[in-house]
Amino acid sequence: MLIGVIADDFTGASDIANTLARGHGASPGLHVVQYLGVPDRPAEPSVQAGVVALKSRSIPADRAVAQSLAALDWLLAQGCRQVVFKYCSTFDSTPQGNIGPVAMALADRLGARGVVVCPAFPTMGRTIYQGHLFVGDRLLSESGMQDHPLTPMTDPDLRRWLGRQGTGPVGLVPLCVVRQGAAAIRAALEASDATLVVTDATSDEDLMAIGAALAGARLVTGGSGIALGLAQNLDVAGPGVAAPRRTAPGPGVVLAGSCSGMTRRQIEHHRAAHPVIEIDVPAVMAGTLTPEAVARQLLALVAQAPLAFSSGSPEQVARMQAEYGREAVAARLDGFFGDLARALVAAGVTRLVVAGGETSGAVVSALAPGALEVGAEIDPGVPVLRPAMTEDDLRAELVRLAASLFQRGFSVGTAGNISVALPDGWLMTPTNSSLGHLDAGRISKLDRDWSHVGGDRPSKEVFLHRAFYETRPGTGAVVHLHSTHATALSCLVAQDPEDCVPPLTPYVVMRVGRVPLLDYVPPGDPAMGDLIRARGGRNAAVLLANHGPVVAGRDLLSAVHAAEELEETARLAILLRGLPVRLLSPDQVAELERRFGGVSR
């Protein structure tokens, strides 16, 4: 592990994980895993950046320090070269807060001085000038954050705010120095007598310069923006192939506990097209409204992407806190949302969108997935997160799915082969192995250069798989079968070699796309890979003439499902051969591709 992050809440952790995973400019994206709390086992060797998500933003300083030091110990044990203490870009804390104490404790443990303090995130309008934090064109104390229910920010001067938290003198690297570049920034930090140094930044270019200045720094503190320039200091090429992307088909629900003005506006926007349920906070506090009751309401509306919220105006929040106490309201609502999320998932909800740092932390803590892989960014700072699969998990899933295909007749004898992408290479079924009798420990492993580094010797048809991974970005798995009907179809003279599988049902269009018939090449001939590579990644599946199908998917499960759909459509095509057939029209196919996203391109 190269970079370790200690984040003070869950959404902040996902924010910086997203920044590190996607990279910036010439800086590579890293293989990032987000951990929920301090893990109890070592990280996978392929992890380049580990983000430990704590729930420490609003807790007393002594507890936050203890949790952060425990996270630091774990990260150092993983070999981290650089540690980042991540807090909110609006510096959420109070004069009795813990940002200063945690930063000082980490600096003391690491023997660091001249430690950057930079919550700037210009993409989201958070900038620092002369040590003052702005949100858009307003000082932080005039941005609405002064009304935050847990951490009202009433002073935009970061040096003064940290001083109130007992840090002692705090330095400043002003914008005029930042604009002189990395060497000037580094010199200013080294010359400072202060342990903590607020560093101005009003643009991504400023953050890149600060990042360059931090090469070799043991400790960095800031918002997610500070991570923009850190990867440029590492001698790595990034993960090469994205971690397998696994989608969660099925119903989704939105939960909102944030009381920010932006969240309240988003709720009203959602209300225009979807059902919205307001959670009665006094009833929650009185115990007369249960998570199960709200879950039943949401499940009755689940096909319409419903939203449940407890977000209130500053005046409403103030009344609740005055009546019940700030900590009591926060704790009760956290527990409520956690129990609500558990009830929804138990009932079959597979996708949750959660607004609010404390609420998100409560939901994820309740669901306890352990670690999360970082998926696509859906909005600045907002990635899709999925429960992470270890290499052992993927080996087990490959064995399970391969056995299922074999038992259902999709593969016979030692025919067929399957591969799945890892952050540091690929797993592949061994040569002359039966898909029905795989041993997880003997599955072949190849590194990013396609060299065999573990397990039995890989399938002799490696080149089929490699061609898809190299020409179709986002491919997470490839399945090659000799399934009966698809192979039969590959033996027939195709009416259209560019699309030899007829659009008999919507599902082959949605899951497989257009399937070209490639010329016959003897088994084991690398020319097969050249034929696939010549397609330029336009197709997710091909039929090898007189041989069988090869199907790529964004992850192992989707590749298997697509191979099954292709076999079913081939079976229908064989059964219907010679009969008058009603195919989907070109307009109907185009509409399916428009609505559900074209698999072919």
From TrEMBL:
GO biological process terms on file: pentose catabolic process
Cofactor: Zn(2+)
Catalytic activity: 3-dehydro-D-erythronate + ATP = 3-dehydro-4-O-phospho-D-erythronate + ADP + H(+); 3-dehydro-L-erythronate + ATP = 3-dehydro-4-O-phospho-L-erythronate + ADP + H(+); 3-dehydro-4-O-phospho-D-erythronate + H(+) = dihydroxyacetone phosphate + CO2; 3-dehydro-4-O-phospho-L-erythronate + H(+) = dihydroxyacetone phosphate + CO2
Family matches, as Pfam families: Aldolase_II, NBD_C, SBD_N
Spans through the membrane: none
Function: Catalyzes the decarboxylation of 3-oxo-tetronate 4-phosphate to dihydroxyacetone phosphate (DHAP) and CO(2). Catalyzes the ATP-dependent phosphorylation of 3-oxo-tetronate to 3-oxo-tetronate 4-phosphate.
Protein name: 3-oxo-tetronate 4-phosphate decarboxylase
Organism expressing this protein natively: Pleodorina starrii
Lineage of source species: Eukaryota, Viridiplantae, Chlorophyta, core chlorophytes, Chlorophyceae
Gene: PLESTB004043
